[in-house]
Design a protein that fits this description.
Blueprint lengths: L2 H16 L1 H12 L13 H8 L3 E6 L4 E4 L1 H7 L3 H4 L10 H17 L3 E9 L4 E13 L5 E10 L1 H38 L5 H30 L8 E4 H15 L4 E5 L5 E4 L1 H17 L6 E9 L2 E8 L6 H4 L22 H11 L3 E7 L3 E9 L8 E4 L4 E4 L2 E6 L4 E9 L2 H17 L4 E10 L6 H14 L4 E5 L4 H12 L6 E5 L2 H9 L2
Parallel strand pairs: 7-9, 16-17, 17-18, 18-19
Antiparallel strand pairs: 1-2, 1-5, 3-4, 4-5, 6-8, 9-10, 10-12, 11-12, 13-14, 14-15, 15-16
Helix pairs in contact: 2-3, 7-8, 8-12, 9-10, 10-12, 13-14, 14-15
The chain binds adenosine-5'-diphosphate.
Amino acid sequence: MDHQTQHLLDELQALKAENNYLKEQLLSTSNNSAFSNQSPEGIDHFKTLADNFPVVIWTTRADGSVDYFNMRFYEYTGLSAEQALDWGWTAAVHPDDLNAATEAWNRSVRRGTEYEIEYRLKRKVDESWRWYLAKGIPVKDSEGKIVKWFGANTDIHEQKEAENKKDEFLSVASHELKTPLTSLKAFLQLGEKKVSPDESAYVFIEKARQQSDRLQMLIANLLDISKINAGKLIYDKAEFEFDVALKEAVENFQLTAPDHHIILEQGANVLYNGDRLRIEQIITNFLSNAVKYSPGKNKVIIRSQIHQENIVVSVQDFGIGIEPENLHNLFNRYYRVDNRSTQFQGLGLGLFIASDIIKRHNGSFWIESVPGEGSTFYFLLPINGKQELIDIDTDNQTYYIGNFIEINYNPEKKQIESNWLGYQNYDSVKKGCLIMLDLLAKNNCTKVLNDNSYVIGNWSEAVDWGSDYWFPAMQAAGLKHFAWIYSPSTFSRMSAQKSIDVILGQITARFFTEKDEAAAWLDAQ
Ligand code: ADP
């Protein structure tokens, strides 16, 4: 049972104890097989239940406009039904949360997917803002058409406060732990110098020093997390030679993992402007995971190379690997693939911190993995701070050639054929998609052969834009059949699948692994 459900049940329990009358009503209702709306005493069960429930309950029409709130909402916000119904409720939402709340709601209504978002609502009595978790589900008729939405807003203010307190505590505690640890390390270093390596005590001091290094890393991670949460992690960017930094990071790491053979294959011999220490931190994190999650295997390969004006670093291990369904969660805070947590120590913070560092350098990250065979963790950093999208040639009517995509109109088959090249991100996907839309409309096409065979990496940040704006625009421009040839890259496939999952309307989209099959399917349409 999740936290929210537990919370709701607790509240319901408390309400039941307080209100015996309602309890009787509830019991008599559940014993009554007919479950009629009106009790013999003339009480409307559902209305009584909804109005007394300790959460805000609402329903909306198919278009997302609210047609009912329970009493709780009116009491809490002080709004009248006249003010709140339809879209008036937005007046009670905190201005900083309003955009995200309405955008998410519009998206759910458009896609017909469940709604879940947190926002602050103003309480009338003391004019305070309290955090609520809003959840809504669509209700469909027998033909699968959405006819209504049912939802509830649960007060999660206390949980939010507790979360903030926890973050604050983490920050203070890790600061406080740092000082004594620094002197402990200094004393151990002194001890190491005073004791000869032949003495038995030397081994103990050495081991104590190694453990204090681990402790220092854990504390540094906790401190980073609290800074990231508070938006206070400062990046100190300067120019440095990338491969020199990489080599040093690998050499330093190798000292801490003498039983492993770390093979370094370098090819990113460029000047890069970034926070060197933070980038070395990503490398160290990937390497220590590679070592940690490959028991019994001692080889790790780390590569750097330049691709389309990007530095791409990969760390490959031959260890336990990761199941595909766990891949996309790995960069979340505290996430650990659970069944292994007891076997391998860790807090689940390293990759979350790495993802923040990478994002703050306008980069991206992804993983390729085969369970039981090993994983390769990648990160990409655009050398100029931003991926360069270069136009090579176009006639603005039948073709476009860029360094990230080629698009052609095939007059024989009356279809658009697009071929995405290499690394993609939000900007490249958006630009390529808009050109495709333009050529589709200009040539009155209904079919697209979209080839992702040469796509590498992760473009997940463009998924929402693709499904919310681009596919509907393509449909409006006449698109009917969309054949999508998968990328071999797992993260790219996941993004493709996600964009398609939510397409509504007249477009039929299909995934293929072979281009011939995709072309044959389109021909048959
Ligand atoms: P930690 O290793 O401290 O748990 P990380 O954030 O570095 O935290 O990693 C998160 C999770 O990702 C790990 O708990 C593990 O389940 C998984 N993971 C990371 N690297 C690898 C790897 N090379 N092979 C298999 N699983 C990995």
